[in-house]
C-alpha cells in the first residue's frame, strides 16, 4: 500500500510519517489491515530529521504545479493525507498566495484524484477557523461556517468540495477541522495561533516569548500527539460510518491563556513564566478573537476521535516528546 | 449609474431588468437615489421580449470567457446582479459544466471585480439547495451548509468566497439563498425543481404536466414577483446592516405539492388538476427530497425581505402577470 502526505516536511507531516512507519500497516476505510510498503512525503522543502527507512520517498515540489502532482500520482496512492497549507496569518496578508495553495491547489488535487483508478481515502487537515462570528456561541456539528479570515474561508470551501467529490465517488474524503495545535515544536511561524505554542515552548527552553493577546483569551486546543492519532483514525474509519457528511469538528479542550500559564508555572516555576512578555498585537487579536473556543464535538467523539485530558497532560507530553 | 445583470436573458433576469427600468433609480447600498442610466444584460443568448429602451445594452457572451467579462467590466458597474448559473439537474448530470460556470466563472468574476476602481455591490442568486441532510431539521440562520447536490455545493462555495471578498473590501456582496421560485413562466427546464412550476403553469394553459414526486412532498417557495423585489431590496441595503455576514436565507412559505394542487383546484376547477400526471422520477426525488422545506428566516425578515402571503396569492399573481 502506498501513502502520500502533502505537507510531509511540516512538523505534523513528519510526526504522522513516524507514526505510520512505526505502525507498519493500516486498515484503510475499516478494511483488513494492509502493510504500508511506500510512504511519500511531498513538500516544497525536503523533510529532515526522519529515520532512514526504505519505505520513505521524499519528493520536493510545488503543490501548485499540476505536472509535479500528476507525476507523483502516476503511481496511485491508497491514502492521501493533505496537510499542505499557507497558514492563517500568511493567507490573511498574502491573499493570492492563500487562494493559490489553500483553494486552487486543493481543487486541482481533487481533480487529479478523480482521474485515478483507485478511489483514494483523502484525509484533509481543515481547521476550526472555518467558524467565526459571535464568540459566545457554542459551536455544534450543524453550526454554519462563517469564517472571518481568508484562511478559514479557503478551508471551508475545501471541506465543501471534498464532501461533494466524496458524494460523487471521486475520492473518499474525511475533513478534520483541527483545533489550535499546541505545543508545536520548533520555531514560531506565521500562523496567527503561533503564540499558543510559543508561550509554553520558549519559556521551557529558557527563552523569552511574546503573548500578543489578553490573559482571558480562550482557545480550543489539541496536542500534536492526539491530532496525529486522529489523522490515522480518520483514514481507518469505514465510509459508512461517515455517510454523506464528511466534515468533522475534532474534539479539543477549552482553556484560557491565563490557565495555560498557570499550569506551566505549576510544572516549571515562576522563573519560567516570567519569561513571557505580554505585548498586545492588534492584527493577531483581530483574527484569533474570531475563533470560537467553545465546541460540542458530539459526532467526533461518537466516531471515536480523541482529545487530551488536560493542559498538564499536553505540556508534559511536549516535554517528554520534544525536550531533553 | 450602470448596472449589469449576468444571466440577463433568463426569466428572472428579464423580470428584474423590467423592474429596474420602471423604477428608474436605485439607492445603492442605502445611499441617496441615483438614476439608472445604463443597464447591461449579459447572457449566452440574447434577451428577447423586453421593451425598446435606450438604457438597455444586450451583451451575448460566455461567462466562462475572461476576456469577454473583462471587456464588459471595462466600463465599471455600480451594481452587479449575478444570476447566471447551470441549474441543479444539469449541474448534477454534467459535473464539469456546473463547476466551470457555477464555481470557476463566479470566482473569475470576483477577481475581475476586485480589480475595478469601484467596489461594486454584488447581489448573488444563491440557493436554499446549499442545505441538505436531515429533512426534519428546521433551517436557521446559523445552520451549516451540508449540500447534497453539486449545484448546492457550488452555490455554498460562492457564498463563502463572496463573503470573504466583501470582508476584504474587494466587492460589497449580498448572497441571497433563494427558495424554489414558482410559478415560473415559459417551459420546463433542467432544474430538478422545474415541476414545482409545471404542475401549476401547464394545467392553467390546458396542457398536461408531470409531477415526479409524491403529493406529501413539502417545498419552500417564493414567487418571481417577490424574489425580484428582494433582489432590488438587497442592492439597496446599507452594508452596515449586513455587517460581516453576507449570507441571507430569503423568506418563503412552506407548502406541500398536495396543497399546491388543492389551491389550484379551488381556483381553476378539477378539470385543470386532472391534467397532472403523477409519475415518480427517482433522480428528481433523490435531489428534491434533500432540500429542507422548513426555515426560520429571522434575519431576512428583520432586514426587510418579503415573502408571499399564500399559495393562492402566488397562483393568482402568475395568472395576472403571465396569462391572458
Characterization of the model:
The structure is a homodimer of 324-residue chains. By secondary structure, the first copy, chain A, is an alpha/beta fold. Chain A has a single domain, classed as Rossmann fold, CATH 3.40.50.720. The first copy, chain A, contains 13 helices and 14 strands. In chain A, the strands form four sheets. Chain A has a seven-stranded parallel sheet with strand order 5-4-1-6-7-8-12, sandwiched between helices. Chain A has a three-stranded mixed sheet with strand order 9-11-13. In chain A, helix 6 (194-204) packs parallel to helix 9 (257-268). The mean pLDDT of chain A is 95. Chains A and B meet through helix 5 of A and helix 5 of B.
Descriptive terms for the model:
homodimer; 324 residues; alpha/beta; Rossmann fold; 7-stranded parallel sheet; 3-stranded mixed sheet; 13 helices; 14 strands; 41% helix
Task: Provide a compact summary of the structure.
Helix content of chain A is 41%, strand content 18%. Chain A has 324 residues and is an alpha/beta fold. Chain A has a single domain, classed as Rossmann fold (3-Layer(aba) Sandwich), CATH 3.40.50.720.
Amino acid at each position: 500500500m502506498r501513502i502520500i502526505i502533502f505537507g510531509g516536511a511540516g512538523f505534523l507531516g513528519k510526526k504522522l510519517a513516524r507514526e505510520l512507519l512505526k505502525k507498519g500497516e493500516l486498515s484503510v476505510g475499516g478494511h483488513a489491515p494492509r502493510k504500508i510498503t511506500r510512504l511519500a512525503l511531498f513538500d516544497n522543502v525536503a523533510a529532515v530529521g526522519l529515520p532512514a527507512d526504505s519505505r520513505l520517498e521524499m519528493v520536493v515540489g510545488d503543490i501548485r504545479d499540476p505536472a509535479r502532482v500528476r507525476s507523483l500520482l502516476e503511481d496511485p496512492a491508497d491514502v492521501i493525507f493533505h496537510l499542505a497549507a499557507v497558514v492563517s496569518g500568511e493567507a490573511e496578508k498574502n491573499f493570492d498566495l492563500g487562494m493559490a495553495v489553500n483553494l486552487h491547489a486543493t481543487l486541482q488535487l481533487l481533480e487529479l484524484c478523480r482521474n485515478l483508478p483507485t478511489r483514494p481515502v483523502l484525509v484533509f487537515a481543515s481547521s476550526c477557523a472555518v467558524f467565526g462570528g459571535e464568540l459566545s456561541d457554542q459551536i455544534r456539528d450543524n453550526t454554519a461556517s462563517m469564517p472571518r479570515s481568508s484562511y478559514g474561508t479557503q478551508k471551508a470551501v475545501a471541506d465543501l468540495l471534498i464532501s461533494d467529490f466524496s458524494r460523487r465517488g471521486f475520492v473518499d474524503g474525511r475533513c478534520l477541522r483541527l483545533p489550535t495545535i499546541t505545543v508545536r515544536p520548533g520555531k514560531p511561524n506565521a500562523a496567527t495561533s503561533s503564540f499558543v505554542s510559543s508561550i509554553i515552548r520558549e519559556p521551557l527552553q529558557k527563552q523569552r516569548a511574546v503573548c500578543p493577546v489578553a490573559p482571558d483569551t480562550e482557545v480550543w486546543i489539541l496536542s500534536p500527539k492526539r491530532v496525529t492519532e486522529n489523522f490515522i483514525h480518520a483514514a481507518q474509519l469505514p465510509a459508512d460510518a461517515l455517510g454523506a457528511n464528511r466534515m468533522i469538528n475534532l474534539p479539543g479542550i477549552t482553556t484560557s491563556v491565563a490557565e495555560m500559564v498557570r499550569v506551566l508555572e505549576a510544572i516549571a516555576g515562576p522563573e519560567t513564566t516570567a519569561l513571557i512578555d505580554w505585548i498586545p498585537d492588534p492584527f493577531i487579536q483581530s483574527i484569533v478573537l474570531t475563533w470560537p473556543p467553545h465546541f460540542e464535538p458530539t459526532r467526533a467523539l461518537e466516531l471515536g476521535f480523541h482529545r487530551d485530558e488536560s493542559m498538564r497532560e499536553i505540556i508534559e507530553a511536549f516535554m517528554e516528546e520534544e525536550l531533553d
